[in-house]
Design a protein that fits this description.
Blueprint (H helix, E strand, L loop, with lengths): L5 E9 L5 E10 L4 E5 L6 H9 L6 E6 L2 E2 L5 H5 L2 E4 L12 H11 L4 H14 L15 H13 L5 E5 L7 H12 L4 E5 L3 H7 L2 E6 L2 E7 H4 L3 H6 L45
Parallel strand pairs: 3-8, 3-9, 6-7, 7-8
Antiparallel strand pairs: 1-2, 1-4, 4-5, 9-10
Helix pairs in contact: 3-4, 3-5, 4-5, 5-6
Amino acid sequence: MSHHKLEAIDLKYGYPDGHEAIRGISFEAVHGEAVGIIGANGAGKSTLLMLMMGLLHPNAGKVRIGGVELTAKTLPDIRKRVGMVFQNPDDQLFMPTVGEDVAFGPRNAGLAELEVNQRVTMALERVGILHLRDRAPFKLSGGEKHAAAIASILAMEPDILVLDEPTAGLDPRARRRVMRLLAGFTHTRLITSHDLDMILDLCPRVVILKEGKVAADGLTRQLLAEPDLMADCGMEVPALLQPCARCGHVPFCGHCPSGASVPSGASVPSCASVPSG
């Protein structure tokens, strides 16, 4: 039995105001798999993550981590195996220094100080910010804060990573850095995002939510290229998967000759506009 397997089984959840946010969701992520969870605003992505982490309790259905059902009794042990990185890193960084933030989890778990220090060093090296160990979190850039938040989770040595909008609010350079970082992990990863280009790069598989249900589950490049499905779920086909206005192939395919023009009024990209090499 793999500790890295995550399962949602017919999950249902409604908020006290009567809104049914999750209406019978089932899926699983296996050892080492990176799965994107996408959908329009209000589709149920954040609620689903909170159910998977035990921050909310389902009205019906089950969550299993490594074959163990998530309950009030099993929650403490399961949280040692599943780490969640919140959309806003300021929600996770509250200590005077980065190093103390990363040490908080292991120290709170009762580990010996020698092991705590070893884990802090390992986690900060892994995300490339060991030099920021003594820096105050509020002095970090957006990308550095995201890296510090991820390090605080890695220090707990989880089997599974759950990430909510990991590139939200980042400038292009910081976004690329976080994406390279996430691509290097071998953990089972569950990633929610509106950044569909990032999902394309990091997640071979995607689960598309609509109104609290699974609208589709399959290969990312296939599902995100279906215009009717994407439109029905309140999203658009990413530019990288839209057909070239001139040749009909996807952009960057190299079919269009250099210098070819895009038909007048075309609203989709042309692979002819992309420099060769």
